[in-house]
Design goal:
By secondary structure, the protein is of the alpha+beta class. The protein contains 14 helices and 14 strands. It has 3 domains: 156 residues, Alpha-Beta Plaits, CATH 3.30.70; 185 residues, Orthogonal Bundle (Trigger factor, domain 2), CATH 1.10.3120; 115 residues, Roll (Chitinase A, domain 3), CATH 3.10.50. The two termini are 26 Å apart.
């Protein structure tokens, strides 16, 4: 905790929480006060008062006794008296009281800095405050009084406090599936689509993988709220606009032909320009002007080499591996959700909106890092990222809940990560992405995601520990849990997109976003 309390620009890297009972404090209510005085004579004599002032937030007041200040002042003055250069006296011959007057401010500043640093270090050792970010503490505002204790106080955001129930031997439902040749061919079609040729579809209606050219009118009830002209949309099970998601897009559009009109349901996100429409369900009437289909390319040697294979059989085997990797990712996500539900059942989760705003981008970065580590393609990551961003504060609350639980388990189990672990993970990502480790590392450093990678490794190891001791019940894989997502670089409601992670203005009402 010391670094967060002494460095103004410390990154918001979460530390591990410990309940008050573990740290020796007793807080009976949110407004109760904990006061403690160290009994160890080698420690700095100080009193610490800790108050809960809201969800994940504490107010800390520290009083350092005068004896600690006087002893340090005395040591500094003694050192100066020996060789102090005071006008009118030979070096080292000035009386102590003269030296004290001459160097009082300089000595006071040094003593204040030393006492503050020692106090914060001791605070970190005695009370596991577990800050989420640098505390609201400005050393320049702290005064070193001529008499009495040095008092300073600050507010700090901390991790939620909760008890870990037994996480070994959990009963977990595991989705299982054996991929058929038809599913492999369907995925192969999707993978080859970017390399194909788009032509008008002359026979049959819209199918997944096609694209459509539409004019679209969007209504909330009977009120028109937006329109799109000559919009090209790829058909997947879901379609994510910048400010909303058509969750059943393929079901609602399949079979349509040029000239047909279909109504698509869109759930608007927290980014919608009109605050009254955020979270609302609207209807988009799409007039289909043209249906386009992709003519897949010939599987030439050159094309197969782009995928790192030498034959169509190897390409299909690679596709099967990709599908299996995607399933394993879904299995881990399902297990995570069940573990969090198990642990959170006995805990009260209350994450303040301002905390979620600040942690939102970090939480998504961790999700992206996790998907890359699991070998998910960049195209899929882009689609899933768009879904996460639709209601970013809600998805952040869920992500942080997982992060807090797995990080606490890692702390209990003493799971850590070192440079060799990071290098091994970068090597693995390089193999998945057919890229050099040097380029992967450079990208991570440029995007400031090395910390996210380290956190992902720790959380994965904590999850592995739980899964290794779990009892499994195999259940059929639900394709609805892994629906393909197409993204559209357009918005359904005109106006400036709202950023839910931005600080609200003084006139803006609280968003009321769910916190956990």
């Amino acid at each position: 905790m010391t670094d967060e309390m002494t460095q103004e620009n410390t990154p918001e890297t979460p530390q591990e929480p410990t309940s008050e009972s573990e740290s020796g404090l007793t807080i009976e209510t949110q407004t109760a006060t904990a006061v403690a005085t160290p009994t160890d004579p080698t420690k700095l004599p100080q009193q610490v008062e800790i108050r809960e002032i809201g969800p994940c937030k504490k107010h800390i007041k520290v009083s350092v006794e005068r004896s600690a200040i006087e002893s340090r002042m005395d040591e500094k003055i003694k050192e100066l008296v020996v060789d102090a250069n005071v006008s009118g006296f030979r070096p080292g011959k000035a009386p102590r009281r003269v030296v004290e007057r001459r160097y009082h401010k300089e000595v006071g500043d040094q003593v204040k800095s030393e006492v503050l640093l020692a106090s914060l270090q001791q605070l970190a050792e005695d009370y596991d405050i577990a800050p989420l970010a640098a505390p609201d503490l400005d050393p320049a505002t702290i005064e070193l009084p001529r008499q009495g204790p040095m008092v300073y106080e600050f507010e700090v955001e901390v991790r939620p406090q909760f008890d870990l129930p037994n996480y070994r031997g959990l009963k977990i439902r595991r989705p299982v599936h054996t991929f058929t040749d038809e599913e492999v061919e369907r995925e192969l079609h999707r993978v080859l689509t970017p390399h194909g040729t788009v032509v008008p579809k002359t026979e049959g209606g819209v199918q997944i993988g096609d694209s459509i050219l539409v004019d679209c009118e969007i209504k909330f009830g009977d009120t028109p709220i937006g329109q799109l002209e000559d919009a090209t949309l790829r058909v997947e099970k879901q379609l994510a606009f910048k400010d909303g998601v058509a969750e059943h897009f393929a079901d609602e559009i399949q079979g349509a032909k040029a000239g047909d009109t279909r109504v698509v349901t869109i759930v608007l996100s927290s980014a919608a320009a009109n605050p009254e429409l955020r979270g609302a369900t609207v209807k988009a009437t799409m007039k289909i002007k043209e249906v386009r289909v992709v003519i897949l390319p010939e599987l030439t040697h050159e094309l197969m080499h782009e995928f790192g294979v030498h034959s169509p059989g190897q390409l299909r085997e690679m596709i099967r591996v990709v599908l299996q990797r995607r399933l394993e990712h879904q299995q881990r996500q399902s297990a995570r959700q069940q573990i969090i539900e198990h642990i959170a059942a006995a805990s009260t989760w209350d994450l303040p909106t301002d905390l979620l705003r600040r942690q939102a981008r970090r939480a998504i970065s961790r999700r992206i890092m996790e998907m890359r580590s699991d070998g998910i393609s960049e195209e899929e990551i882009q689609g899933r990222q768009r879904l996460l961003e639709q209601n970013i504060l809600q998805s952040t609350a869920l992500s942080l809940k997982e992060h807090f639980v797995l990080q606490k388990i890692a702390e209990v189990e003493k799971i850590d990560v070192n440079d060799d672990d990071l290098n091994d993970e970068i090597e693995r990502m390089a193999q998945h992405e057919h890229e050099s480790p040097r380029r992967i590392r450079a990208r991570l450093e440029r995007e400031e995601m090395l910390d996210a990678l380290a956190a992902e490794i720790i959380e994965r190891r904590a999850l592995d520990l739980i899964l290794d001791t779990a009892e499994y019940e195999d259940v059929p894989f639900d394709e609805g849990d892994q629906r393909s997502v197409a993204t559209a670089e357009m918005q359904t409601v005109p106006g400036e997109i709202h950023d839910p992670t931005a600080e609200p203005s003084a006139t803006e009402e609280p968003s009321g976003e769910p916190t956990a």
